[in-house]
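REQUEST FORM: STRUCTURE PREDICTION
Request ID: SP-0412
Submitted by: Lab K.M.
Chain count: 1
Length (residues): 512
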Amino acid sequence: STDRFFTIDVPYLGGGRSILFNLCRAGTMGIVTSLLFALPPLLALRTLSPARLFRRQIDPSPASFDWQDRGILIGGGLLLVVLVFWQAGTIRLGLWVIGVLSFAATFLGIAVFLFLKLLRKFPRTFGGLSFRQGLSNLYRPGNQTLPLAVSVGIGITVLFTLAQIEASLMDHLRENLPKDTPSLFFIDLQPDQKKPFETLVAGWPLSGPPRLTPLVRSRLIKIDGNKVSEMTTANRPDGWYFTREYVLTEQKVLPEHNRILQGSWWSSGPRPLSSGPQISVEAEAARHLGIHLGSILTFDIQGVPISGKVTSMREVDWGSFTTNFFMIFSPGSLSGAPTTYVAEVRTAPQEDLPLQSAVVRSFPNVTVIPLREVLEGIARLLERMAVVIRWLARITLLAGLVVLSGALAATRYQRLREMAIFKAIGFARPDLLRSLAVEHLLFGVLTGIVSSLLSVPLAYIVVRFLLDVPWSFHPERVILGIAATAFLTLGTGLLSTYNTLGKKPLAILRTE
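STATUS: Completed
RESULT:
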């Protein structure tokens, strides 16, 4: 747009030192997080008496923590919070991250707890013996279903959220690129170059006649008689609305991709054009500037003040990639003001470069913006962003599966004892394998369903309120994600526990 440019800010890492600094910061967070998870069992061992080891079957109560142990854990938690703020860069973003993670863990914990309560009331006569045993394993004494589901579920939630955000962004790009987007913009055409330019481009095979729009550069100096220079705007996030340069224009007809929200356009309303300069203001700018219908705005155009009355508010589709403006004057209001022109031209792709060369040779002062190349660059950038998001999702899923494998390995002794007892009472290896498959498959389905219930509203909040693009829901991604979670959890669980199936029950039971 002429008055508002579409930009994508890509942070520069600042070379090798900055990359090394980011790696050290990420490594520090990983080490601190690992230590926090390892500290509770290590601190419990510090005060554990040898006699408790021999009485663990009749006294399974967990070891207690003294005030020193609690202080260590609280200090480690506070250190992790400080690292989160450090990584986030701002207090506000850090609070958002901590709040979302806390809410996600709480939601997952409550949802899984209620689901396990329902499973306990499931009819015991349904399904075969292996199915009933696998179902019971989810809520048996000493089960790890709840902490595992919370740990793995947070990772799966991030994965599902990223997938929904990526889908909404790509849909927005595909659906909102207008079919009649100009391929070339020519900026800074002088008034005496207007006719020669039209004559030059008329000899080219264009998709339509070129559209030339007059531009007048100015500064906003007064709002309803109050000087902008005397307003306190330095610390306001929207202060640039008051201090920026405004590109003005005058148009008789309401531009395409604009919609009147309040008031009326001068060519369709009851006001005659002789009632003085009238101004149509973009609605978002009017909100930040405190402008309403009837406000008097004064602009400085190279030292000459020009005032006008606000008679309408517009909604502008800035994604249309055409000339759009914050402020539009009624026809004749800017007569005599220093004016330049911007021209929009639509050509076939193969004609872009020859036409650019011809215009630059004839008008060296004109700046050419090849919008087709810009849009193609944006599309390539978004595709790369989508690749990054997919890799982040894969890493997140891998981390969740590692957590699951570690938790299963931690309960290996309990698994060995259970399987030895089952074999002793007549369970065959296929029966045990089916029981494990049912347990891990149901665990994956449970984690996937609960994570999807949390990820969809999170993705909606990010897309609508942070990225400010339309939300599009893709149920097929949710279903595919739940299925993938279930089967990956099944595969990880079976691989982690399969070697225990071959253990002889007698050798295990003799250790009791």
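NOTES: The radius of gyration is 33 Å.
Reviewed by: T.R.
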